[in-house]
Design brief:
The protein is an alpha+beta fold. The chain has a single domain, classed as Alpha-Beta Plaits. The protein is about 25% helix and about 35% strand. A four-stranded antiparallel beta sheet has the order 2-3-1-4, with helices on one face. It is globular.
Length: about 100
């Protein structure tokens, strides 16, 4: 299986005590909404074992146009979770080389 041509990487910390609510919202609400948008293939979330930002999400995209769809604009952001969000970063990476698989 070929790797996606573009990935979106987001990282975030959340206020102490809000981790369970944030993870529930992210996994049960946010990810399904984003993955329903055109051009989004899949997503995976990670938790940092040391340091910050504490949470990382990697989205596989068909191309950078996926970031401009009206569907994504409707669900982008943190909604009710925004007051708990700290240290948010977002980056888009385009594949420049693939070795194997």
């Amino acid at each position: 299986m070929s790797l996606p041509p573009v990935i979106l990487v987001t990282s975030v910390d959340v206020a102490a005590g809000s981790e369970d609510d944030f993870n529930r919202w992210y996994n049960e609400t946010h990810l399904p909404e984003v993955l329903a948008c055109p051009g989004f293939r899949s997503a995976a979330r990670y938790e940092c074992t040391q340091g910050e930002p504490h949470f990382l999400a990697v989205y596989e995209l068909d191309d950078e146009d996926a970031l401009q769809t009206p569907e994504l604009q409707q669900v982008r952001g943190f909604g009710d979770m925004f007051p708990n969000v700290r240290n948010f970063h977002e980056r888009v990476y385009r594949r420049i080389h693939q070795h194997g698989g």
